[in-house]
Amino acid sequence: MMRIGVAALALALAGPAIAAEAPPLEGGATFISPMGEPFRSTDGLSGAEHWFREADADHDGRITREEMRADAERFFKKLDQDGDGEIGPDEITRYETEIAPEIRVASTMGDMSLAKTDDQGNVTPPPYPTRLGAGRFGYLDMPEPIITADTNMDRAITRAEFDTAAFRRFKMLDTDGDGAITRAELPKLSAKAATSFGHGHGGGGGGGRGGRGHGRH
Ligand SMILES: [Ca+2]
Ligand SMILES: [Ca+2]
Ligand SMILES: [Ca+2]
Predict the structure, then answer these.
(1) What is the pLDDT of residues 125-136, one digit of tens each?
(2) Which range is the signal sequence, renumbered to this chain (predicted)?
């Protein structure tokens, strides 16, 4: 896509000018943050870089535990539309269908663009699972990052559960355990990964625990 070319060019041009600092994060225009928030970049920077800049509130190049907590809290307020302190079933559905429809699982069999067809026309899907849902667009392999935070499985996510999830995800990404996430320790995202198969292959379930697609908002 054109956007990838522009992003690559922007990174190449930005490189020498800010050599003293970490270069902008790589990745595609669409990014799902560790707490599940979608970032859709249109300016050539990766969606991941937009998330990092927003989460790193004091712009010191390090996302601390407190900054991660604030990032989670800010998104929690967006998700908790009725303000009752929980992300309830309808708000989960709204997340999956309106806020971040990209995460809907395309296939539980893997990326069908990698399927092999023999000379009799028999199709063999890739035998390995590729990342699903939101995992295709972010650092953590979680198909549905909101549901994943529902630790007591009652289809509502409290503020405390969301904060616990933020802490766990923070620790997963702070790989050197120094109390901050830096650009250098985040996994590399390929620009292609997030665009390799768009949504709309006819969702194969997975991800959430039922209850999706009732069209209630
Ligand atoms: Ca910071
Ligand atoms: Ca609510
Ligand atoms: Ca660290």
Answers:
(1) 665 556 788 998
(2) 1-19
